[in-house]
Each structure stands twice: as structure tokens, then as C-alpha cells.
Amino acid sequence: MSTVTDKRATGPVAAFMRPINTLVERYIPSALVFVIVLTIVVAVLALTLTDSGPVDVIRSWGDGLAGLLAFMTQMALVLLLGHALANTSPVHRLLTRLGGIPRSPLQAYVFVFVVASLASLITWGLGLVVGGLLAKEVAAQLRARGVKLHFPLLVAAGYSGFVVWHMGYSGSGPLTAATEGSFLAEQLGRTIPLSDTMFSPWNIAAAGATIVVVALALALVAPKRTAPIFELEFDARDKAVAEEDVVTPADRLDASRILTLLVGLALVAYLVIHFSEGGTLTLDIVNWSFLALIFLLVRNPFELIRLTRNAASNVGDILLQFPLYAGILGMMVGSGLIGVFSDFFVSVSTPQTFGMMALLSAGLVNFFVPSGGGQFAVQGPIMLDAAGRLGVDPSVAIMAVSYGDQWTNMIQPFWALPLLAIAGLKMRDILGYTTITFVAAGLVFCATLLIVGAG
User: Fold this and answer.
1) Does the structure show a pLDDT above 90 at 337?
2) How far apart are CA 257 and CA 296, in angstroms?
3) 22: part of which helix (H) or strand (E)?
4) Which of 48, 101, 303, 410 is the least crowded, having the fewest Cβ atoms under 10 Å away?
């Protein structure tokens, strides 16, 4: 079996990007440290760039901590439900069948990326988990056939599917702007329909173009037949979970499918009523649709409890960090700092270039605020204010921030952690390849926003 101890990307492009990757690996701290440092930076900026005093800044920070509790719960549910849905028995069986489709290493890299992209467009929590699970399944099945492939690239392909998540069904920015009473809708004085953002023809075209371009880029950098590779050394697929013992009448209730099926059907009935009466797609409706699927797909409450416990371990970061993001937003609004930043973007942008400038700034901010929901809490109001002053459609601002958030996720390790844990790798093992995705997707995003700005 041809293996090497260095699992990082090989080839001239990866070698060129290695200094940047090393910088990211060595000097980017945890997401929690990021938000603490960002809180300090924003407080200092509020004190130096506005008329606010220390007491004013502390008060606005403290008052803001509870400002995003509903939004925080919605984001936590997106991740929890996506993780649980990916691990239901029917979805697991589907992944096993899909794992047998690729017959060559090149097919495997492209196939895993495309499936993970489609899963991410459905919901980002599902996409992250599917990318890792499918990469292991494909690697194990090809290994059983005697086909050798580079496992780090396969995992990178799975994570690369995350580069389109904000363009799809669970995009937190577009859904927040479409939700009555959200902080973005309150700022605008109205909601922005999804037909202007997520379901706009130009966003759908950009999502398709991104999948095609990134798939081609990953195929081009795939190791040649003679290149050293790192294979999956053992069958790392998850083993079947033992069934719970059914002894008491209470156990029989927990092992019955009737109760979960009833809840699932009730949720489906509610969704049908909601849409038949003219209801729109919101963050809550997205979550209830996936909750309905989970209740319909699980075998019994025993399985649902197990899936929830396993998924809950991934939600802690959101629950801890979102109040701090809300505090940052409180400082920015209370001190007037949001207006200072908005003035800057108005001064350096034109209506034609605003979208690309917003993309670049959002990509940078994503290093410090790696949660898409948290980033919209911090940056969304600034960009909407600047767009309004430049006469730019607010949907462009919403999607530009969305693109920037998903773009630099490819070189920001925060959201890769669940997938890497599933695959048993470290960020440095895949960073050379996800950097390729970063470059390829960035070209599509910039081109899209320039074309929309010019139109």
C-alpha cells in the first residue's frame, strides 16, 4: 500500500500555497478567542472613533448580549437537525449506496464534492456531515476493490461542498432578511423576498457555476498515478449501533415508531397549511421541515434521542459565542460605530463595485466571525446601510456578505472541525486542496457580483 507520512497536498500549486497555509495553521487561534479579541477591538474603536465613553460602551455591550437569542436558537437548530438527519438510518443507507458509484480516484474526488455541495445547498449542517461520512464510505469501498486514492483530497472535496451553502435552502442571511421581525428586516423596514436573493436567477447560476469550476479545479490538482498518496489505512466507517433493550412498558413506548411518526405527520400538515395560506420560507420553517423529515425517518424515540445526543456536541460553540456576537452588535449600534464603517464603504465603493467590495470585506471578517449567522449580526447592518446610501439593491448586499462568508470558510478551520473529526484528519492535511477551492470559487463569486453590479 503506497502511503506517505506527510498527508498534505502535493504538486506545484499546493507548494506555492504552502507558506500561506502554514501561516493559517500556526497563527489563527480558536473561534472563541477570535470573538473575544474582536469584542476588545470593537470596544477600542468605539471609544476612539465615536463620542461614546467607557460606561456607554459597556452598557451597550451588556444590553446587546441578549439581542440575538432567537436567532442563536435558530442557528443551533440548523446544525443540530442537519447532523441528526445525516445520521438517520435511511440517509446512512443512501450514503452507502452512493459510496459504490465512483469507480476511479478522479470520479471519487468529483463525486464526493458534488454530493456534498448538493447536501450543503439543502442545509449546511447536513452538508458538513455528509461530506465526511461519504468520503469515508467511498474510500472504504474503493479500497476493498483494490483502488488507491488520496484520502486527504477526498476529505477536502467533501469539505469543499460547504463553499456553496449560503446560496441554498438554509442560507442564514437571505432567510433572516426574509423573516418578519428579524434584526435585518427591522433595519430595512421590510423583508426581502427570497426570490430576490436565494432564488434569484443570478444566484442560482452562480451556484451552478461554482460547483462546475471547483469540480474542475479539484480534478486538475488530483495526484497523478505515480504521485505519492495517503490512503485510508483501515475501514473507518461507523459500526452499527446496538439496539436498546426493551423490557418495561416504558421501553416499549420508546421503541415504538407510532409516536415519532405522528409528530412527523403533524409537522408535515402544519407546513402544508403554512404554505397553502401564503406563508413564506423562513429560518423557522426550514428547521421545522428538517425536523419533520427526522421524525418521519427515525425508527423510534430511542434512535431520535441517540441522534440528538450525538449532534448536540457540535452545538456548544454557537450557544457560547452568539451572545458575544450580539454584544458586539450592541456596541456598534449604540456607539454609532456602524455609521463610521458604513461611511468608509460608501467612500471606497461605487454602485458597480459595491458587491465585490462587500464580498472581499466579508471574506476578511469571516476569519474573525466564522459563523455565518454571527457575521450577519455584525456586518449585515453595516452593508445594508452602505448599500442604501449608494442606491444598491439590498439583495446584492445580502448575497455579497453570504458569498464572502462561505468563501473563506475554505481556509478558516472552524467549520471543518466536525468533518475532520469524522474523517480522522487535521486541517493541515486538507488545507492545500481547500485553498484551491478558495481560489476557484472566489473567481466565480467576484465575477458574479461585478456582472450584477454592472447590470
Assistant:
1) no
2) 9
3) helix 12-27
4) 48
